[in-house]
Write a structure and sequence with these properties.
The strands form 2 sheets. A 4-stranded antiparallel β-sheet has the order 1-2-3-4, with no helix packed on it. It has a 4-stranded antiparallel β-sheet with strand order 5-6-7-8. Helix content is 6%, strand content 44%. It is globular, with a radius of gyration of 14 Å. A hairpin with a 6-residue loop joins strand 5 and strand 6. By secondary structure, it is mainly β. The protein has 1 helix and 8 strands, in the order βββββββαβ. The chain has a single domain, classed as Beta Barrel (Thrombin, subunit H).
Length: 110
Amino acid sequence: MPRAPHRGFTPNDECFFIFLDANEQYLASGSEDNVGVVWDRNYGIPLCRLPHAEVVNCVGLSQTNPEVAVSVSDDQSIKVWRSTRLCRELGIDLKEKTHGTLLANIRSRR
C-alpha cells in the first residue's frame, strides 16, 4: 500500500470520521476517503484495502472467521470480502473477482 491508508476531506476545524471494528487478529476501519482498510492488530500496519465508490460507513469483521469482512458504503452497496487463501480453499475463481477477494456485492434496490 504505497499511499496513506486514510485521507480526510473534512476541514480541520471539523470532525474527521473513521469507523472501526476489531477481532483478535485484525482491526478494520472505513472512512470518508471511500476505502475500508484491514490492519494487522499486532504491528499496526495496513494489510488490504476495501475500495468503494463513496464513503465507507462501516467495516465489520467476522468474529468466527478472521478471513471474512463486510463493508457498507454510501454508494448503496454491501461488499463481503474473503481472503485470497479462503477463496482458493472454497474453489472461487480469483480471476473473476475484484482484487481477488470480493465475494459478493449486493446493491440496494430503489
